[in-house]
Structures are given as structure tokens and as C-alpha cells.
Amino acid sequence: MDVETIRATIKQAIQQVTGIDAATISDTASFTDDLKLDSLSILEIAVSVESQFKFQANDEELSSIRTVEDTVALIKRRMCVAVA
Amino acid sequence: MTKRVAITGMGVVTSLGNSPTEFHSALCEGRQASYRRESCELDDASCTQGGSISSFEPESYLSGKPLRPLDRTGRIVAAAARLALENSGWVAALLRNHDVGLVLGTMFGSVRTIAEFDRRGLTQGPACVSPLDFANTVLNAAAGQTAIWHNLRGINSTIACGSCSGLMALGYAADLIRYRGHTAILAGGADEFCFESFCGFDRAGLLCKANGHDDFPVPFAAARSGFALGEAAALLMLEEWDSALARGATIIGEIRGHGNAYDPGGNRECRPETIARAMEAAVADSGLNASDIGCISASANGSVFADRNEALAVKAFFNGSSDTIPITAIKSAVGEVLGASGVLQAISLIETFRTHTLPGIRGLEQIGPELPELNLCRQSRTLNICSGLINSVGFDGNTCALMMARAQATN
Amino acid sequence: MRRRSLADSPVVVTGMGMVTSIGIGREEFWNSLLAGRCGFGPVKSFDTSGYQVHLGAEIRDFKPDNYVHRLNPASIGRSSQFAIAAARLALLDAQIELNAAGKQRTGVCLGTTSGEPHYVERFDDRYVQGSLSSLGDEFIAGYPCHLVPGNVATELELGGETMMIPTACAAGNYAVAHASDVLRMGKADFMLAGGADSFSRITYSGFARLGAIAPEICQPFDRNRKGMVPGEGAAILLLETKEKAEARGARIYCEVAGYGLSCDAHHMTAAHPEGEGAARAIATALRHSGIAAEEVDYISAHGTGTPTNDRLETIAVKKTFGSLAYRIPISSIKSMLGHTMGAASAIESAVCALAITHQQIPATMNLREQDPECDLDYVPNVARKRAVRVAMNNAYAFGGNNSSVIFTVCAA
Q1: In percent, how much of chain C has pLDDT > 90?
Q2: Is C221 in contact with C138 (CB distance < 8 Å)?
């Protein structure tokens, strides 16, 4: 799966939670500062991403994601593991 | 010292209009709510009536924040709250400086969210459940979400008593003002129409049977066979009388008193004597007399036994002399809206005080032959009254009555 | 014109009954509590193999047939069974036999988080299996949460106001608060007030997904605390006016002096970061009870054991009590019972009443290394003898609900 698809999926998940148009969400937007997401909404996005990419992040990984790019990196990492 | 409870505003979300005036006019004109039903909801349901409000668009009431955290119940309540706050003049700046409370009556609260949350866990695994939905699996979710949306920091309570929930919530909130020093509480009730409650009622045989036409079952009618399930949210702004006057609010009515009773008979039915007991308690609590009751807004919804028992209770309550007191009922127009029912009855009564028009019981022709003689209003009529009594009779033994009066400076 | 004002007579607790994972009935419960017994174990009521946590505080030895006589125990939910048991035990404890007139003037007011969750879970099982067509009246006759107080009233043939106040994890306090008002208003002679909840897959799934469930142990206020442990149970208090209690020669545990309820209006699941609403509830409760801050001898904490709750609760207590906060013993029995949801603050109300009666405070168990951010006196690991004249019960809930109820020794 290419990075663009992963990125689009994440932004779609953000749109679902916030109502913000996915096309306007930047890759480096901070979940808390720019998108005004609280911890529950970030977790909601994480769960949505997890179930689409079929993995489960641990607590440390969950608290490490602060932007779209962080989340892409996490998924790439986890998918490599899954493939391996 | 006991305080008086002023009603200073109302907010409704119904399929008969989204203002008290529209709603009351629709009742007086004999219109019936148009509900929407998803075709796939329950293919083999024996009831074909009822459904959810087709015209409700949350975005037109609730803007500026993401809507995703609120489920349907939360949205209709937050929308009705906005209307009631605006109607009573509680603007955001006032709310910042005052702890306004919220008391919400609901039978099922967030049952749709609860069930969908659970089913996602069942089908996709517990790791896939939605955190945002989990926040709404508590039965007080709509009250919590509405408080967050509108910054209501006073008491936040949810009252669950089946179809009596809304009226009991009004009584509960009124007592907090009368006896407990609260000055402003938004109070009312709501229930969404959802698959879970509809399926539950349908399978339990409580809903009206498909009768080949779209008319809702008619309270007290000979042909009644159960009720139709609707959807609504309705809230009243209740304020301590003097502080309402002090802030220059317009007082549109008063809650005088209420009475609750339970029938432990065990067959989940309120016997006439229990319904009458709640009515007596409400009148005693109000400081008024039975002779002051200008009209009765009945709970009747087309149920076979509950309607009969309520009619018998009214007869017994007035000691047989009730032939002249006009009795109306709203549920052939709006359906059984559970937590919202009693509050919609209250709103219609307040509008009756104001417009001097009492709506008739939509579609009432042939009255059940087993019912006692009562002045059941078939048509809307002119009525100039100072006070009225509202009944809520539940399916499970709960019964509640509430006395309301028009706004009068002295009591 | 008749206008009633609140009765002058205080409202008192004259009976209590509880069903918990560490004991059923007042004596067994209190002895377990003082001994620091914990009710945790692997969850048995449903399969947790798909979860990352497996710990729960279920009640293992409850026999509904011992308590449910008039109703068919199989026809009502587990929360109703708990509530009926707690109500019967409370009446027994109060040594009261209600006559027909008394029953008519007795109400039931309970709190809950989930009501009867097993009925909606069964509904969902059927949905998934495609067997909803044979649902019958099981869902409607079992699920709606107001059936819990209704079932208590039906079982005991009570005709007063029955009400469910489902304000989640603060619900027990809301119920006790309302019941005391009903009595003060003279709208009932006796009120059975409390809360009930049963162990639920829905609640468990949610807290597990939030990462809020402790894997091994519940240790409120500990620096290494990892979360709460979902539990179940019920407690019901018999409340009446002091006047009536004295007239019938009843044993009085304590007085329900007053309460404060507030809403953060901040977040559904997270408490206000400065404990604003919680502090407001405490201040209102003190004012309403006519109690000065320095008179408080014990605080029964919400104390769930999640990192955030315990820290913010500590902030809220300090916000209201200032330097006095360091002198008030605070304990969380959730360290033993887990979080019994809507029943929690009802059980903790009973604990306040018992602390006043026995002049003893149950400990916060499993507190090995105190969190530096939680720097108050949490009565670690050993129950304490202490004069308790005023006890405050704090409880918080989803929806931003805050509640504080104050119990005091009953002046002669």
C-alpha cells in the first residue's frame, strides 16, 4: 500500500470525527493545536485507522502520534512488521 | 420559604414543527406528524406507523463545533436546548455568569449507540469499538453533551421513568427551584426513534397493529390496539419567579405542583386508583383545588388498558362529576414520544393558556364502549382557563401528574 | 393557600443493605472492608480472550432466590436482583415492618450507569445471530433502566414515587440527594435510596479500549496506578425523617445533612483540568449542609485508580479545603471493590454512615508508593480508628457530573 493511500485514509478518519474537509488537512497539522482534537477524538481516529490497517497500537505508540505524518510513519512501521 | 416556578421559554424539536406555536397550531388543525422509517429497519414488524423526524437537520441548530461526538438523542436535545435558551433570553454571556441546570427525562437515552457500540465489538472485536460512542453509552449522555454544548454548569440530572420520564423531570426540576434555591433549570424530555426501541416494543406486542392506513392510533377510541412510536425533544426553561422577573424575563406559565405514584400490582399496569392517587397528589402539592382544573391533557396513546384505566381514574378523581372538564390528548397527532410526551403536553397546555384554543383529540370518533362518560374533545375548541392538569401513565407501573397555571402575578 | 416548606426534621439513615464482591449485607461488608479484602479476579461472566485486560470485580456467590420472592428471579435482570436484595437487607437492618399505609408512602430512588445491560447485550447477540424474530417481550420487559427501582417497588409492594436517576458513576449520590429532598418535602414517609449496576461487556469493552482498566490491581493514588477495575453491586439505604425514626425507636446511623451537584460542561469523559466543577460541588454541599470546611473528618473519594481521576480529585479537594486538605483522611474503597459504576456512590454513602457509626475509616488498599502529585492523607493500607462526625462522599461521572453528599452524626 502506498503512502498516499495511507495518508488519505487517515485524513478521511479525521474528517469523520471533526467534520473538517480532508482535502484541507495538512500533513503536519497538530492534532491538538491545529485540529483542536481532544484525547478521545484522537483515540477514535486511531481506532478507525487500526481497524482499516488491521493492527493494534500499544499505549506508547498511541501517545506518540501527534500529526498525520506521525500516524503514517506508525502505520508504515507496523505494516512492515505485519509483512515480515 | 417555598418559591414559585416560572416558565420563561420553550424549545421543541418535533415532526409537527420546531416552535411551540407551530406545534400547537398543528395539533389544533388536526395534523399528524410525518415520520420517516428506514425500510430495512424491521421487515416483519407488525406495526407500520411511527418513525423518526424526517426534517431534522442538526447543522441548522448546532454549529461551530464537531457534531460527531453527539448521537441522535444528544443532537435533538442540544437543538431543543438551543431553542429554549434563545426563547427565554439566556444568551451565552448570561450563561457564563450563571450556573444553569439541566434535567432531562428519557426512557431509552442512548440505547441505539449502546447497541451499535456493542455489536461492533461483537462483530469486529473489542479493539474496534468506538471511543466516541463509548462516551455516549451512559444513559445520561444527552444531558452531558447538551451541557457541554451550551455551557450549562448547574445541576445535571437525567430522570428515567419510562414514558413518565419527561413529566417527572419537570416535577423534579420544579422542586429544586421551589425548595432548594435553584434559580434556573432547563427541564424536559426526549427520546429518539431507533431500531432497538421499536423492535423491542413491536415484539412485545405493545405497538398498534398495521391497520391498512397511516393514521396513528387514537386515544380512547373503540378501535385502539396499541400505540405508535414517534420521536421528539422538548424542554422548558424553569426559573425562580422573582429572579425571572428581576432579569426582565417574560413569564409564560407556572408549574404549580406534581404528584408521582407507583402501582406495585405486578402486572406492569397502573390501576385507576394509582393514577388518581398521582392526580390527587399533584393537586394537593399545587395548593389549588380539583375545581380549579380547567382542562386535562391525558396520557392516553391508544393502548387498550392504559387508556381505559386513565379514563376511569379521571372519573374517579372528580368523584363522577367530571363530565364537563375538557379532556384532550396529543398522541394521535405525534405518537408516543416517551420521554418527550409529558413535556409536549405541557407545551401545548401553555399555548392553550395563551391562544385560548384547546386542541381536540385527532381522529376520535367512536369512543371505547367500556370507558366512562367524559368530556373528550373531538375538535379544537375555545377555552379560556387559568390552570390545567397533565397526566403521564407509564407501561410499567409509574404514573405522574403535574399542575400548571397561566402566568399570573399573584397566586 | 397551602404552600409547604421543607420540613424542619432532618433526614436520617436507619437501615442499609449491600451486595458487593467482598460481602453481602452490612456486617460482612464492613468486616471485609476493615480487613482490606479485595474482590478482584479474572472476568468469568463473558469471554475476555479478545481483550488485553482480564481483571474484574464480579460478585460470585450471589443467590437471587434468597431475596426475590414475589417476582420470579429469572424474569428480572441482575441489577434488579441486586437492588431487591439490598432493599430487603436495608429493611431488615432497619427492623421495620411496613403496613399497607406505610408501603403506600414508601418510595424508591436509585441510580445506575447501565441499568440492565445484559438485556441489550442479549438483544445484540440475537441481532448478530439473526434471531430477533423470537425476541418476544424480553427486551421491553427487562431492559429499560427504570425497571430496576420498579422491580424493587413491585417486589416489596411499595406505592410511593419510584425513580431512576441514571447519572452514570455519580448516580448513587444523586439518588440519595433526591430521596432526602422527597422526605424533607413530606412527599413520602420512607425512601429506599441507592444504586445498582451489573457487570457488563459493554462497559468493560469501553474502558478497555480507553486503556483505563488496570491489568493486575487497583491502586488509587499510587504513583504506579494503572487504572480502574470494573465491578458490580448495589447498596440501598433506608431514609426517613429523624422525627419518625425517633418516634419508632429506630437505630439512627447518621443524618443526610446536604449535598452539592454540578456539571463541568467541559468534556464527556475527562474531568475539568482544574477540578472546577468538583470543587463547586464540594463547596455547595458544605454550604447546603451548614458545615464548615474544618468540620469534615473523612472524605470517601471517587478514587477510581486512573492516573487522571486521582490527580484531579486531589486538586479539587485542595481547591476547596486549602491547607485543611492535608488533615482530612481520604480513602477509596474502589481499591477493594473496583468501580461498581452507578452503585459506587451508594455503597460509599453506606461507608460514610458506617464510618460515623463505628468511628473507623476504611483504608485505601494497594497503596505502595504514593504519587507525589497526590499528596494528601489517603489512609494507606490499614483501616484507621478516628472520631468521624462529618463524612463527605464524592463521586464523579461521564457527562461531567460532580456530586458531593455530606453525612453527619445525628445530634440527640
Answers
A1: 96
A2: no
| B406's grid cell | 397561566
Q: What is the dihedral of CA A14, A17, A20, A26, to 10 degrees?
A: -20
Q: Percent helix, strand, coil in chain A (nearest 5)?
A: 65, 0, 30
Mean pLDDT of B162-177: 98
Dist. CA C218–CA C359, nearest whole Å: 26
CA angle B209, B398, B259 (to 5 degrees): 130
Over residues B207-259, the pLDDT tens digits come to: 998 767 788 999 999 999 999 999 999 999 999 999 999 999 999 999 999 99
Is the model's pLDDT at A77 over the cut of 90? Answer: no
Cell 381522529 belongs to B363
Residues of A with a Cβ under 8 Å from any B Cβ are: 16-19, 40-41, 43-44, 47, 50-51, 56
DSSP at B250: P
> Chains with 3 or more CB pairs closer than 8 angstroms to B?
A, C
Q: CA C219 to CA C231: how far, in whole Å?
A: 14
- State the amino acid at position B259 in one-letter form: G
Question: Given pLDDT bands bounded at 50, 70 and 90, which one contains residue A60?
Answer: confident
pLDDT tens figures, B15-64: 999 999 999 999 999 999 999 987 656 778 888 889 999 999 999 999 99
The set of residues, in sequence order, having a beta carbon less than 8 Å from that of A72 and lying 6+ positions away, is A3, A6, A7, A10, A27
- C-alpha cell read off for B327: 379532556
CB-based contact A16 B132, cutoff 8 Å: no
Amino acid at A7: R
Q: Within 10 Å of residue B121's Cβ, how many Cβ atoms? A: 26
Q: Cβ contacts (< 8 Å) between A18 and chain B: which residues?
A: 66, 68
| B7, pLDDT greater than 60 | yes
pLDDT digits (tens, 9 = 90+) for B316-358: 999 877 678 999 999 999 999 999 999 999 999 999 999 999 9
Taking CB atoms and an 8 Å limit, are C163 and B168 in contact across chains?
Answer: yes
Query: Is the pTM for the entire model greater than 0.90?
Result: yes
C218 carries an active-site annotation: no
Partners of residue C260 on adjacent β-strands: C404
Report the complex ipTM: 0.97
User: How far is CA B369 from each of CA B273, B361, B375, B391, rounded to the nearest angstrom?
Assistant: 20, 17, 14, 22
Predicted pLDDT at C4: 44
CA-based end-to-end distance of chain A: 15
Q: For residues B307 and B367, give the distance between their C-alpha atoms in angstroms, rounded to a whole number.
A: 11
Q: Which of C344, C117, C399 is nearest to C218 (CA)?
A: C344
| Model pLDDT, residue C1 | 33
* Helix H or strand E encompassing C279: helix C276-289
Residues of C in contact with A43 (CB under 8 A): 209-210
Interface-testing mutation among C263, C274, C405, with chain B (most B C-beta atoms within 10 A):
C263
Residue C235: φ, ψ to 5° = -145, 140
CA distance C259 to C165: 16
Q: What is the DSSP secondary-structure string of B104-146?
A: EE-SSTTHHHHHHHHHHHHHH-GGGS-HHHHHT-STTHHHHHH
Identify whether C272 is a catalytic site residue. Answer: no
CA distance, residue C165 to nearest chain A CA (Å): 26
Distance CA B275, CA C169 (A): 33
Please confirm, yes or no, whether C146 is among the known catalytic residues: no
Query: Is B53 within 8 Å of B34 (Cβ atoms)?
Result: no
CB contact (8 A) between residue B68 and residue A50 = no
Other CB atoms within 10 A of residue A34 CB: 13
Contact A56 B127 (CB under 8 A): yes
Distances from the Cα of B405 to the Cα of B85, B168, B248, B386, C400, angstroms: 21, 17, 20, 6, 34
For residues B183 and C191, the answer to whether their CB atoms sit within 8 Å is no
Please identify which of the residues C339, C352, C374, C410 carries the catalytic annotation.
Answer: C339
